[in-house]
Design a protein that fits this description.
The structure holds 2 protein chains of 2 kinds. By secondary structure, chain A is mostly beta strands. Chain A has one helix at 2-18, and strands spanning 35-47, 50-52, 55-57, 65-77, 82-95, 103-106, 108-119, 126-139, 158-169, 173-184, 187-188, 194-196, 199-201, 205-206, 211-222, 225-236, 255-266, 271-284, 290-301. In chain A, a hairpin with a 4-residue loop joins strand 4 and strand 5. The radius of gyration of chain A is 19 Å and the shape is globular. The termini of chain B are far apart. Chain B is an all-alpha fold. The longest helix of chain B is centred in the first third of the chain and has 29 residues, at 160-188. In chain B, helix 17 runs antiparallel to helix 18 (480-496). Chain B has helices spanning 18-33, 83-97, 101-110, 114-129, 160-188, 193-196, 215-230, 235-251, 257-279, 290-302, 333-338, 350-364, 368-376, 385-400, 405-433, 438-441, 460-475, 480-496, 502-524. Chain B has 2 domains: 58-279, Vanadium-containing Chloroperoxidase, domain 2; 291-524, Vanadium-containing Chloroperoxidase, domain 2 (Orthogonal Bundle). The interface between A and B is large, with 66 and 73 residues.
């Protein structure tokens, strides 16, 4: 049992790390206590259409924007109810057309603590649990947030609170509902003026809007297999639209609805692999990206 | 079935691990605390303007376009002892008795100085309109249309040379209007309401400067007329701002209704003189035509050089290729040609190969400090442009010097006339030589900032910055070292960005300094220094 449960927890980290903006720790699963885990995740994300505000378009000076990342993830279950985790991605961006330079670098270290607040069962229909998590993200290199869409991140500190409700039936299916609220610190640019949201700002500081995320997940969990499908909605609580034929800006109102699916399989020897795919269905000031992820994880019970 | 609210078996196990839990929470909390710094600032703070001099001789300073300070007549005001004037004072007192918070905010805002406030507003307009047209679905690009400024594309595309010209027209018109206002002020010597009646409160700093005609109304009138022509889609907001400036002068006890009416009329009349020049300065035909664009390329090819091509996708017509023939302020067309920099290294020469390799080497090994400089001086699409950046630099010196409105206007007029002339000279050279960008000669060169859509030689940033640094060093000698350092940084930022060769930058700096010399000649004999 132990490896499988550990694997589930790792999957959740992987889902989190694969998202463009630090995502929820929302699968509702805890590793058994004193489990140490580590893994590597590769993600390939690309888009050729994006939303300039609400206008969907292509851009000859971008072509296809590809973002590849390799993310280290690690975790430790302090108790059955408390897990700690960390992740750190290396990211590279590339535009297939035009003259803009690639960017690459170590992005943000994410640290998280996750609690199981309460749980029931197994009852007549299944188990129900509620989890809460807090995450913090901090940039680990001085990458630039001022070259969107090629910037590898917002280069700002963020803190997120998550709540997840989980129901796991007595048969093989499960369902989760999560919400997360992300507080974003101001971002600093290398220039003393910028124009966004209908106003000229004469400062190098940018107020970043906070972000709400909702995730609904349903899936199957049977034997060594776990197959979740999620609908993710990100709502940015402020920020301006990309102006007509302007470059995107770090504090733009970046909203999207994304369908995200995965397959996780537990291998012998405490290893597990996961494969995932996601596609943005609708958005605002974001690319209509398609993302493929693959990860390999290892868990060790101390 | 246990209640979902049951915590049985949960917390007791936690007890010996609380420190870990607390550590995790504190990490998250520390990060969250960093998320609380939501307000941004400082903006350019403008404290209430208390000019260090009344400038009683400004009425005799040399004009730019007006034939003299009395070209536009201002009728004598009613005497202070008249019933009409008393009624005007009563109206001010009635307003002051019932000021709203919004009115007090307007007074505080405009007390910072009208010339500087309008300079901020102008930079905002440039940043808003400094976006190139989006390509059409069927290919090609639409042309911004002054007769349809609210459309897509918006009018204008306030690119660097459009912006340079706009800053110069607004600043030069304000300067001539204020010199004329100063002439009439000291002709009639009618003091401000707060000085004439001590029951009128002075809610802005009030000096012994005569208030007829009101300098606030002169500035509002001349500026709004210029902006309505340069940024027609902004007509509503600039009109509202201008009215607010005049009202703030009245509410604050600085000007009466007749001070304002006389100033407004004078400002508008001066604007008409400048707008007549603008209508015939060559800007309307600066976009050229497909025949002309091809002729420019053919001319470069005929000289044995590789001609510039647009690297926008789809290829975009060059940015205002005939701007080099737009009328300059302090140079004749012959001066522009005479000052044209010598040819760049041949596109097939070893020097050009070496310089292209330097660009490639620089962008592939760019340091964080170099990227910061490239971004600091990027001033590309969507910004207030390089001339706007130098207005930003100048404003702090004007503010800290506590210049009167007329002397503040002189700074911006000299600075922006020189930068406009730098734009004309630079564009004349760019389209004369039609030299390719580094990323055209070596397509493996990728840029760290947006690639401007016009030929490479000479660097516009370097030319603007060198001209600006020369003017500001003359006006503020104590800042000369700082201006020179900014000029050099702005220039080299284009190499760091991967969009210019070193020779573009060096030639641009020399060119900009020579061009500034013409405006300095004007400044040295204008009776103001």
């Amino acid at each position: 049992m132990m490896p499988k449960r550990a694997m589930r927890w790792l999957i959740l980290v992987a889902v989190c790390a694969s998202s463009a903006r630090a995502q929820t720790i929302d699968d509702g699963i805890m590793m058994p206590k004193r489990t140490l885990s580590a893994g590597v995740l590769y993600a390939h994300d690309s888009w050729d259409h994006y939303w300039e505000g609400t206008l969907k378009r292509t851009n000859g000076n971008i072509g296809t924007l590809t973002t590849q990342s390799v993310t280290w993830v690690g975790g430790y279950a302090v108790t059955d109810r408390l897990g700690l985790m960390a992740s750190l991605p290396y990211i590279r961006t590339h535009a297939s057309q035009g003259v803009l330079h690639d960017l690459s670098g170590l992005q943000d270290l994410m640290l998280a603590a996750k609690f199981k607040l309460l749980s029931t069962g197994p009852g007549r229909y299944g188990m129900f649990s509620v989890l809460a998590a807090a995450t913090g993200a901090i940039p680990t290199s001085n990458y630039t947030p001022d070259f969107y869409p090629l910037s590898i991140g917002t280069a700002g500190r963020r803190a997120t609170g998550h709540v997840t409700m989980k129901f796991h039936s007595n048969s093989t299916w499960f369902a989760n509902a999560s919400a997360a609220y992300m507080w974003c610190a101001n971002v600093r640019l290398n220039r003393n003026s910028y124009y966004t949201d209908g106003q000229l700002y004469l400062t190098n500081q940018v107020v970043m809007p906070n972000v709400l995320d909702y995730t609904l997940t349903a899936g199957i969990d049977r034997g060594n297999w776990r197959i979740p499908v999620s609908l993710v909605q990100q709502r940015t609580l402020g920020g301006g639209d990309i102006r007509r034929q302007d470059m995107p800006f770090v504090s733009n109102r970046m909203d999207f609805v994304k369908l995200d699916g995965g397959v996780m399989y537990a291998l012998p020897g405490n290893l597990s692999i996961n494969l995932g795919a996601a596609h943005v269905l609708s958005g605002r000031n974001v690319g209509q990206s398609t993302t493929f992820t693959s990860g390999l994880f290892y868990a060790l019970h101390l | 079935m246990r209640s979902i609210y049951s915590r049985s078996g949960g917390w007791p196990k936690m007890s010996n691990r609380r420190p870990v839990l607390l550590a995790a929470i504190s990490v998250a909390a520390a990060l969250a605390a960093g998320g609380c710094d939501k307000s941004v600032g400082p903006f350019e703070v403008l404290p209430p303007l208390e000019p260090s001099s009344l400038e009683p001789t400004a009425g005799s300073w040399r004009m730019i376009l007006l034939t003299g300070p009395s070209q536009i007549a201002v009728a004598a005001p009613t005497p202070v002892a008249s019933a009409a004037y008393t009624a005007e004072l009563d109206a001010i007192k009635a307003s002051q008795a019932n000021l709203t918070d919004a009115q007090r905010q307007a007074i505080a805002y405009w007390s910072g100085g009208g010339v500087m406030r309008w300079n901020q507003i102008l930079r905002e307009l440039v940043a808003r309109y400094n976006l190139p047209p989006a390509p059409k679905d069927e290919g090609g690009y639409p042309v911004p249309d002054a007769e349809n400024p609210f459309g897509d594309p918006a009018f204008p595309f306030a690119n660097p040379v459009y912006a340079a010209r706009a800053y110069s027209y607004v600043s030069a018109a304000q300067y001539d209007a204020l010199k004329s206002a100063w002439y009439w002020k000291f002709q009639y010597n009618r003091l401000s309401p707060a000085r004439n009646d001590n029951t009128v409160s002075a809610l802005m700093p009030v000096t012994d400067l005569p208030s007829y005609p009101s300098e606030e109304a002169v500035i509002s009138g001349v500026t709004v007329e210029m902006l309505k022509s340069l940024f027609p889609a902004a007509v509503e907001e600039v009109t509202v701002k201008a009215a607010e400036q005049r009202n703030a002068a009245l509410w604050s006890g600085k000007a009466t209704a007749s001070d304002l009416a006389a100033g407004l009329a004078l400002g508008k009349s001066v604007a008409a003189v400048f707008l007549a020049r603008a209508a015939a300065d060559g800007m309307r035909t600066a976009g050229g035509s497909p025949v002309l664009w091809k002729a420019l390329a053919d001319s470069a090819t005929a000289r044995g050089e590789i001609a510039w091509i647009s690297q926008d996708i789809p290829a975009r017509p060059p940015m205002l290729p005939v701007f080099g023939q737009v009328r300059a302020w302090n140079m004749t067309p012959a001066d522009i040609v005479a000052e044209r920099p010598p040819p760049p290294p041949s596109t097939t020469s070893q020097q050009m190969k070496d310089e292209t390799a330097e660009v490639k080497r620089t962008v592939e090994h760019l340091t964080s400090a170099q990227l910061a400089i490239a971004q600091k001086w990027n001033d590309g699409a969507g910004t207030y442009s390089p001339p706007g950046h130098w207005n930003d630099v100048a404003l702090e010196y004007v503010r800290d010097s506590k210049f009167s409105e007329v002397r503040a206007a002189r700074v911006f007029a000299l600075l922006n006339m020189a930068m406009h002339d730098a734009g004309v000279g630079c564009w004349e050279a760019k389209f004369h030589y039609f030299n390719p960008r580094p990323s055209q000669l070596d397509p493996t060169i990728k840029t760290e900032i947006g690639l401007p859509n016009f030929p490479s030689y000479t660097s516009g940033h370097s030319t603007f910055s060198s001209a600006a640094a020369s003017i500001l060093s003359y006006l503020f000698p104590s800042g000369a070292a700082s201006f020179a350092s900014m000029r050099d940084e702005a220039g080299i930022s284009r190499l760091y960005g991967g969009i210019h060769y070193r020779s573009d930058i060096e030639a641009g700096k020399l060119h900009g300094a020579r061009i500034a010399g013409y405006t300095l000649t004007f400044a040295q004999s204008d009776g103001a220094q």
